[in-house]
Amino acid sequence: MTELFPPTRLEALSRLSSFVPRAGRDYATGRNYDLPEKGHPHVSQLSPYLRHRLLTEAEVCEAVLGRYSLSSAEKFIQEVCWRSYWKGWLELRPQIWADYANAVNMLDEDVHVATAEAGQTDIDAFNAWAQELVETGYLHNHARMWFASIWIFTLELPWQAGADFFMRHLLDGDPASNTLSWRWVAGLQTPGKHYIARSSNISKYTEGRHNPEWRLNTQADPLSGPPHPERRALRDPGEVQPGLRTGILLHEDDLSPKFLLEALPDAPVAAAALLSPARRSPGTVSAKILGFVDQAAADTVDRWQDRFGARGPIETSVDKIAEWAVTQGLEQVAAPFAPVGPAGSSLRSLRKRLDAEGITLTEVRRTWDNAAWPHATHGFFRFKKTIPDLVAKLGAETE
Ligand SMILES: Cc1cc2nc3c(=O)[nH]c(=O)nc-3n(C[C@H](O)[C@H](O)[C@H](O)COP(=O)(O)OP(=O)(O)OC[C@H]3O[C@@H](n4cnc5c(N)ncnc54)[C@H](O)[C@@H]3O)c2cc1C
């Protein structure tokens, strides 16, 4: 599947430029159609690239707004901003991720979950989506909504098990977008409001490919859960200090290091990457995801080699990266900011190791994230009022 989504920036840029002409009216009218047999022609399929920031949100918005006005491409720009909204929302409430991760750890093996994951239920549409997910690493947004709804309300399986299935197979599997979207379908994110999959809607938007009719439970109540935790202040990323021997550390949450290089007062002497995709789940994360992340990191290091100094390891082990920093005689390691999730946890562990060696680890946050995340306080409806301001800042830092 890595073949369907080659993990390079070149591929990401080429997809972006071929999608831009379709980001206006075509996207607004066609985006809800789930048409895998036609290659999902009405959506961008940029998510594996955006998730790992082989392409940034700002870059994608800038390309689209280079061709369309904000009002003509409003739907598409809003969808890109959903990604930033979810990230900000989770960053302000990291407990939600911790609770989800604990719940997944506590899940028992369940034959019904195994049957659903294998695509062997009596609902053909659901089975087809389970297979598409495993085979391609991608599902259309509408299919994700129907799948999650059927998982929770018709098959009555734990939502966390479904979210974990997605995290083990989606190339764009993202702690914020995935966890919060599953919670939204379940009725936990906007309490009392859940998403019920209906046959007529599935049939219309699959152009009659699927029609599960009586098999769906359309009468279920939303799930209930504890109130949202209190918001915390955004974590202070800190500042890179001048005059120190500095190494760059990449990770899979941000593989566009130009902004980081520009934030450094001095040129870096070395660069390495710490990758944590296997930590997306306590189960087995697909080889497609591991391969995508590994090759995407290698692509980034190759492209920036002449600005990076000595080439260091691309590693999954915190200990090995700590060793690299010591061997290189670093006084400071600078990394792109890692939000809540596996990469963030790995950087936390690394920080402890480096502190013990007297090496500072500083995360640098992008202009886009600084502008977007503080507004993710309530619902998307309120957040979206900040979109004109957000896109007005484009150009400050896109790549
Ligand atoms: C249950 C469920 C789980 C999901 N899990 C993930 C996930 O793990 N990772 C992930 O990136 N998205 C997730 N999504 C959101 C969305 O389905 C995907 O981002 C989108 O389908 C990606 O396909 P695309 O690039 O063709 O999207 P397009 O429609 O072309 O949209 C362009 C970009 O906007 C962003 N975007 C679009 N829709 C959403 C959305 N609803 N929420 C957040 N960002 C969005 C993505 O970055 C996407 O690449 C989930 C949605 C649901 C309902």
Keywords:
single chain; 399 residues; alpha/beta; Serine Threonine Protein Phosphatase 5, Tetratricopeptide repeat; DNA Cyclobutane Dipyrimidine Photolyase, subunit A, domain 3; Rossmann fold; 3 domains; five-stranded parallel beta sheet; 19 helices; 5 strands; 49% helix; binds flavin-adenine dinucleotide
Question: In words, what does this structure look like?
Answer:
- The protein has 399 residues and is of the alpha/beta class.
- The mean pLDDT is 96.
- It contains 19 helices and 5 strands.
- Helix 16 links the parallel strand 4 (332-336) and strand 5.
- It folds into 3 domains: 1-93 and 367-399, Serine Threonine Protein Phosphatase 5, Tetratricopeptide repeat (Alpha Horseshoe), CATH 1.25.40; 111-229, DNA Cyclobutane Dipyrimidine Photolyase, subunit A, domain 3; 246-364, Rossmann fold, CATH 3.40.50.620.
- A 5-stranded parallel beta sheet has the order 3-2-1-4-5, sandwiched between helices.
